[in-house]
Design brief:
This protein is of the alpha+beta class and 623 residues long. Helix content is 40%, strand content 26%. Bound molecules: adenosine monophosphate (AMP).
Length: 623
């Protein structure tokens, strides 16, 4: 539980689909995952309000969304699309919404769009205020005291009226809105991109229902929006619909054109389509089944390639927008220093690939794309509450960084206090024959064992061609760029297979905790080294005995039976010793003896190989 600060200011992402509240202190920014009842969830509050036609709110957020199916006319979602808009301007928008959008007299002779439920008319700021109250309640449950100050984000393209409507929403919810900031600016702040003046950043935001891209320029410590472009009706929902259409087509092909899809089935299909799409971000193919009733089950398979073909036209439109935004800012793609990803749909590998092609660089993805805007808002909030920005932005790596190796030891690649930017590379290999994947765990800390370090992230290198243990060469690279973002990549050199992850090592620890971790490492240094050495020598025993076993198998009956017996016996002894003893020196000595003993075995293997080669040669000559 955070303490000390009296003037807490929270950061709020008031989104079209979901809203979040976040908070930053010297550990860095984080989303508040506490619900108003003190439970925990993923921090995302659906921007949905269910309103009783007789007056009053029934539900906000997740539970309100449940009403959307049976009672669409009282379930208000996407209210952000109406914020500060004139009634005439939202006609097209209103046609897509299942609730009643009505005209209400606004100031300065302008009619504004409002929502009618039952006999009551609600303005968009009033509806948004219900969502803000929910976020405020979450923050209060987390801090266990009243919270009244916030920074709220809005899209870069919001005009003054829309910004004012957002302020009004805050006021209605009992929040003092200290500042309204642009969503792309918040995203850049979350990544600490305010530390290098004269840089140009593209923020690509692809959510469920909206898309926009903004080009920002940082100069004199402030972000200026050079251009923005987008489509307020383009996003992950379109991808879901493509999958639904395909499934319907296939079902009808099998069961006949007459087959109807009632709303309940359609809702099930929507959930299924989204789940399939999400799984295809991490898997190459998904098999799924649909229950069509009357004992009919329809099975289908969708590959990542299928999905990519379906969403290509939509992604192309976002790419065209990027080019337009660049053109409006009078910039070439290579003028962009960083690309930042926002919105859940940017998790799709195809989207990232296309962006890499356009901008010629890897987009930033270290932060959760659903959270990045709220996190950035909280960074701005913490600075306004008096926290020094330098606390969050460091020039040196605060704690060593490495990966977990077999047996739970740590291979450190970058040592603490190294100046950023920096880079380190090390080779690793497999420990099992035919191993086709390697799990990589990125660790932070000074201790020698993985269990005593912080896990920053995990990823898997898959698709390694099956080879004997020790053969694959996996090059692991740690690169910390000038913004303090750690890029870890692993590449198997024969196959060229690659996998990578990004993380921000500076987030999540206070200076005091860093100092404590250093002290602990010092206090445990001797013991840690001992265990590390034990793990290393045990790994070597596993590796060498496996190799010897393989050689014994290969050697066949031509090997001296006495030699086979001696090696087999000492192998068993060595393995037993490695498992039971903690004396790394004794194991090491026994390993050396064993290795010496297997020299004749290696010689026998070489002689046998030569003999085979010779036989083959003479055989070829004779034929
Ligand atoms: P947002 O509006 O930013 O919350 O984004 C929500 C959209 O992101 C929805 O369409 C989700 O289906 C989509 N989404 C979330 N996670 C993934 C994922 N791993 N792969 C593909 N789409 C995703």
């Amino acid at each position: 539980m955070p303490t000390g600060q009296t003037d807490t200011i929270v950061g709020i992402d008031l989104g079209t689909t979901n809203s979040l509240v976040a908070y930053a202190d010297e550990r860095g920014p984080r989303v508040i995952y506490t619900t108003r009842d003190g439970a925990r969830d993923n921090g995302m509050v659906p921007s949905v309000v269910a309103i009783d036609p007789a007056g009053g709110v029934i539900d906000v957020g997740r539970s309100a969304r449940l009403h959307a199916i049976e009672r669409p006319e009282i379930t208000v979602y996407s209210i952000k699309r109406l914020m500060g808009r004139g009634f005439e301007d939202v006609q097209e928008e209103a046609r897509r919404l299942p609730y009643r959008v009505v005209r209400r007299a606004g100031g300065q002779g302008r009619d504004i769009a409002a929502v009618q439920i039952g006999s009551r008319v609600y303005t968009p700021p009033e509806i948004s205020a219900f969502i803000l109250r929910e976020l405020k309640a979450r923050a209060e449950a987390y801090f266990e005291r009243p919270i009244s100050k916030a920074i709220i984000t809005v899209p870069a393209y919001f005009d003054d009226t829309q910004r004012q409507a957002t302020r009004d929403a805050g006021k209605i919810a009992g929040l003092d809105v200290i500042r309204i900031i642009n969503e792309p600016t918040a995203a850049a702040l979350a990544y600490g991109l305010d530390r290098h003046d004269d840089s140009t950043i593209a923020v690509y935001d692809l959510g469920g229902g909206t898309f926009d891209v903004s080009i920002l320029r940082l100069s004199g410590g402030t972000f200026e929006v050079l251009s923005t472009h987008g489509d307020t009706h383009l996003g992950g929902d379109d991808f879901d619909w493509e999958i639904i259409r395909l499934v319907q087509q296939e079902v009808r092909r099998r069961y006949g054109e007459h087959l109807a899809f009632p709303p309940s089935t359609l809702q099930g299909l929507r959930n299924l389509a989204e789940a399939v799409k999400i799984r295809l971000s991490s898997q190459d193919q998904v098999d799924f089944e649909i229950d069509l009733g009357q004992g009919r089950n329809f099975g289908m398979q969708l590959t990542r390639g299928d999905l990519e073909r379906m969403i290509e036209p939509y992604v192309q439109r976002t790419i065209d927008s990027c080019r337009q935004a660049l053109c409006d800012a009078k910039l070439e793609p290579d003028a962009i220093d960083q690309v930042v990803l926002v919105g859940g749909s940017t998790r799709i590998p195809y989207v990232r690939r296309r962006l890499r092609e356009v901008f010629g660089k890897e987009p930033y993805s270290a932060l959760n794309p659903d959270e990045v805007v709220a996190l950035g808002a909280s960074v701005q909030a913490s600075v306004m509450a008096g926290l020094k920005r330098e606390v969050l932005l460091l020039d040196v790596v605060p704690l060593s960084l490495g990966i977990e190796t077999l047996g739970g030891a740590v291979a450190k690649l970058i040592l603490r206090n190294t100046r950023m930017p920096c880079q380190a590379t090390e080779m690793f290999t497999t420990f099992l024959d035919g191993q086709t994947s390697i799990k990589l765990t990125v660790l932070q800390g000074e201790r020698e064992l993985a269990k005593d370090c912080r896990t920053l992230g995990e990823f898997e290198l898959r698709g390694i061609p099956p080879m004997p243990a020790g053969m694959p060469k996996v090059q692991v690279t740690f690169l910390i760029d000038q913004n303090g973002i750690l890029h870890v990549s692993a590449r198997e050199q024969r196959s060229g297979k690659e996998a990578s992850i990004q993380v921000i090592p500076a987030h999540g620890l206070t200076r005091e905790e860093v100092r404590q971790m250093e002290k602990d490492a010092y206090a445990h240094a001797r013991q840690d080294m001992k265990i590390h050495r034990l793990i290393d020598v045990r790994n070597q025993v596993v590796f060498d005995t496996a190799k010897a076993e393989q050689a014994l198998r290969k050697a066949g009956p031509t090997l001296d039976p006495n030699l086979r017996k001696t090696i087999t016996e000492s192998m068993a002894n060595l393995r037993r010793l490695a498992e039971t003893s903690e004396d790394s020196e004794a194991i090491y000595q026994a390993l050396q003896d064993f290795d010496r003993m297997t020299i004749p075995l290696a010689e026998h293997a070489v002689a046998q190989a030569l003999k085979e080669a010779h036989q083959q040669e003479t055989g070829e000559r004779n034929s």
